[in-house]
Amino acid sequence: MKKLPLACLPLLKKTLPLAISLLTALEITPASANYINLPSTNLTPISLTQSPNLIAQIPQPDNSQEPTESDNWSPILIAIPFIVIGGFVFAHQMGFIFGLVVISSEEVGIVIKKFARRSLSAGRLIALNNEAGLQADTLAPGWHWGYWPWQYNVRREPVVIIPQGEIGLVVARDGASLPPERILGKVVACDNFQDARKFFTKGGEKGRQLGILTAGTYRINTGVFTVITSDNAPQLGMQPQELKLYAVKPNQVGIVITLDGLPIQEGEIASSTFGGDHAARAAGL
Questions:
Q1: Sheet containing 168-172: which strands, arranged edge to edge?
Q2: Which one of 84, 112, 128, 152 counts the least CB within 10 Å of its CB?
Q3: pTM as predicted
Q4: Rounded to an integer, what distance in angstroms lies between the CA atom of residue 204 and that of residue 184?
Q5: If you write DSSP's letter for every residue of 53-91 in order, what string do you get?
């Protein structure tokens, strides 16, 4: 420790008594010089038993855990059954009150009218003029109004799909009678059997059809037409391979034998034209 210079001793002798007098006036002793006593106030101690609300005001430690993802999904999972049931009830009420029928993009609506002022004529199965019975016109995808359940029965049938490399055969349930010399109905322009009304108004014939369906998707009234595909062929007396496309390899020819049509002229062994109303019989080559 460094010693004070001698020149400071006279100054120290003069200021030391003044400093001691100041500390005595403030009631501060050198031992407690680092502390300052604040003036006391008349505070009344508060008992927790006398003030129960004070306990509620004391912050309590939060022991709850952070909400997990499953906790966030719980209300939604609980609400799903009620939403589904409510949707079914709403759809049923809309159908009952307003006759609403909704057809999806992969469906065809087949309409059966339960009663009407007019009935079908004898021998007819398909209604063309709003008679009671199976209607020729179908419902396209979308919302349709006025089909009240007490008057109509609407069936939603899937569209007809013919896979690549296959064909579909068609059988009409109604139409004009076939001539005795033919077993297949004539070809009628009816948008590949998708327009049943046009099929009947243009003279479509009942039974197996000469026209076929190639690969594609078709909106066909399956109440009017039965479409034979490789999927349902066994149930209809055919084999799935009979509906496959025939492939003629290079350096080969294909010979066709028809089982329907007009007989060939006398002295001929093959039809002069392919197709039409002539029956062709192939000679062995």
A1: 207-213, 168-172, 225-228
A2: 84
A3: 0.63
A4: 11
A5: HHHHHSPPP--PPPPPHHHHHHHHHHHHHHHHHHHHHHH
C-alpha distances in Å from residue 122, one per residue of 119, 127, 152, 196, 197: 9, 12, 22, 19, 18
133, β-bridge pairs: 113
Q: How far apart are CA 218 and CA 223, in angstroms?
A: 14
Give CA torsion, residues 100, 105, 110, 115, to 10 deg. 10
Distance of alpha carbon 215 from alpha carbon 164, whole angstroms: 5
- Among 102, 255, 227, 98, CA closest to 159: 227
d(CA 155, CA 135): 12
Q: How does pLDDT run across 200-211, given as a tens digit for each residue?
A: 999 999 999 999
- How far apart, in whole angstroms, are the C-alpha atoms of residue 28 and residue 71? 64
In tens, the pLDDT along 118-144 reads 889 888 899 999 999 999 999 999 999
Q: Give the three-class secondary structure for 137.
A: strand
Residue type, 59: P
